[in-house]
Amino acid sequence: MEQILIVEDDMTLNNGLCQALKDNDRQIVSCESITEAKEQLLLGMVSLILLDINLPDGNGIDLLKEIKEKSPQIPVILLTANDTDKDIVAGLEQGADDYITKPFSLAVLRARVNTQLRKIKPDNNTGKYVDETFEFDYNNMIFTAYEHQIELSKTEQKLLRILTDNAGITVKREALIDRLWTDGAEYVDENALSVTVKRLRDKLSAQEKIKTIYGIGYSWVKENG
């Protein structure tokens, strides 16, 4: 599932962006400051960022620079009320993938967002993960490990998809719990995640592939990585 992070302090515009970009296969996360955005980025899972330049606790360009240093693969579209060449050039030089000047058409913004998302997920459109040992066909729910087909529960399938879609990236426990148990339950025992990870490891014989980052979360080890 795609996750779009919106960093915009104008609440009316923020809400409008959330509604305009809403989709069944997409999660929208809204922030109104750099501080909130950094907290959300620590959870991982972000597919694309819409970033306002002028924020109450700092300059969006500085956050852009930090994002691109740590996670250059995440596309960032700048939202700016400044249409001078200086502001636009500064953003592009720090790695912005696109920019749009306020006021703007939501239809145009949606098109630009979709363009950036298509660039980063050509391999995911097949709904498959394949390496030398494993083959996971998420569309048809066929999971093969060491040439043997494995039966996985729905929760195990969701966990595996999140990990392989973010191969090489540590996914925080909090983010996994939030994504796996979205039935509105007020409380989920954190031990449930540990148990699910163990069962998935055992079923796939993936003890070396699903890595525990102690005190933080889990990572699917990339090939040659």
Describe this structure in words.
There is one protein chain. With 225 residues, this protein is an alpha/beta fold. It folds into 2 domains: 2-120, Rossmann fold; 125-220, Winged helix-like DNA-binding domain superfamily/Winged helix DNA-binding domain (Arc Repressor Mutant, subunit A, Orthogonal Bundle). 39% of the residues lie in helices and 24% in strands. The chain is built from 8 helices and 14 strands. Strands 2-1-3-6-7 form a 5-stranded parallel β-sheet, sandwiched between helices. Strand 10 and strand 11 (148-150) form a beta hairpin. Helix 6 crosses helix 8.
Keywords:
alpha/beta; 24% strand; single chain; 225 residues; 8 helices; four-stranded antiparallel beta sheet; 39% helix; Rossmann fold; five-stranded parallel beta sheet; Arc Repressor Mutant, subunit A; 2 domains
Provide the CATH architecture of the largest domain.
Answer: 3-Layer(aba) Sandwich
* Order of strands in the sheet with most strands: 2-1-3-6-7
Distance between the termini: 24 Å
H/E series: EHEHEEEHEHEHEEEEHEHHEE
Given helix and strand content, the structural type is alpha/beta
Looking at CATH, the homologous superfamily of the largest domain is Response regulator
Rg from Cα: 19 Å
Large-scale geometry:
elongated
Q: Provide the residue-averaged pLDDT.
A: 87
Q: Classify the fold: give the CATH topology of the largest domain.
A: Rossmann fold
- The biggest beta sheet, please? 5 strands, parallel
Tally of separate domains: 2
Low-pLDDT ranges: none
CATH class of the largest domain: Alpha Beta
Indicate the percent of residues in helices. 25-40%
Number of helices: 8
Number of strands: 14
Strand content: 15-25%
